[in-house]
Amino acid sequence: MSAWGHQAGPARVLNIAEIVAQEPFIRTVLRGLGVPVVDLGDVVQDVVLGAWMSSQAGRYRPDRTREPLDALKRWLFGVCRFHCTHYHERAFRRREVPVEDPWATTGEERVDPWQVGERIDAAKALMTIAAMPLWAREVLVLAALGHGGTEIANILRIPLGTAGSRLRLARARLARKLRRRR
Question: Which residues pair with 8 in a beta bridge?
Fold first, then answer.
């Protein structure tokens, strides 16, 4: 018996499209686990991204004795349960408001989210990033996590100039691909 279960097979990496194709199933599971309709879209996005990252880390090990779709749905159910547990424990779900008017503390004007330029469909953007080469995904993810050029170079063990060039090229490539999808 392995740490992954009785009949767990070798790790399999899923692409984002395989996970997104299961969105109706994910929505049904989340509704059954008590996620209100108003928050359903956000939690579905969390589950899809979490499942993809978990798969990339080698944590999807389908049971060889089950049909592939059944094994995928069972695994996605576990991912949904994990995200629902964290969803129900979050402070914003308990309606905690530390300040009565949060915009008053920023000194900024209120921003209407519907008036903020063009919106990018998150699922399409994720599929675009997933289709990019590994070197581009690495620098984009590290930059999105807030790492600067020096930190990216240190983490990837590459020269600072190379890190800067990769980041510039990856951003340009991503912008081109997203423009084409519109």
Answer: 63
Spell out a b/e string for 97-119, using b for 16 or more CB atoms within 10 Å of the CB, else e: eeeeeeeeeeeeeeeeeeeeeee
This prediction's pTM: 0.48
| Domain endpoint, select from 64, 94, 124 | 94
Q: In which residue ranges of the chain is pLDDT below 70?
A: 1-9, 91-122, 181-182
Q: Is residue 113 part of a domain?
A: no
Residue in the block written with tokens 């695994």: 75
Q: Which two tokens stand for residue 176?
A: 């081109």
- Residue 176, CA atoms < 13 Å, CB-side half-sphere: 7
**Paired tokens of 40:** 């359903």
- Our count of domains for the chain comes to 2
Residue 125 belongs to some domain of the structure: no
Query: Is residue 103 within 8 Å of 110, Cβ to Cβ?
Result: yes
Handedness of CA 155, 177, 52, 83 (dihedral sign): positive
Residue 138, domain extent:
132-176
Count Cα neighbours of 16 within 13 Å in the Cβ-side half-sphere.
17
Q: Is 90 helix (H, G, I), strand (E, B) or coil?
A: coil
Residue 158 corresponds to which amino acid?
A: I
CATH of the domain at 57: 1.10.1740
Helix, coil or strand: residue 2: strand
Measure the CA–CA gap between 75 and 63, rounded to whole angstroms.
10
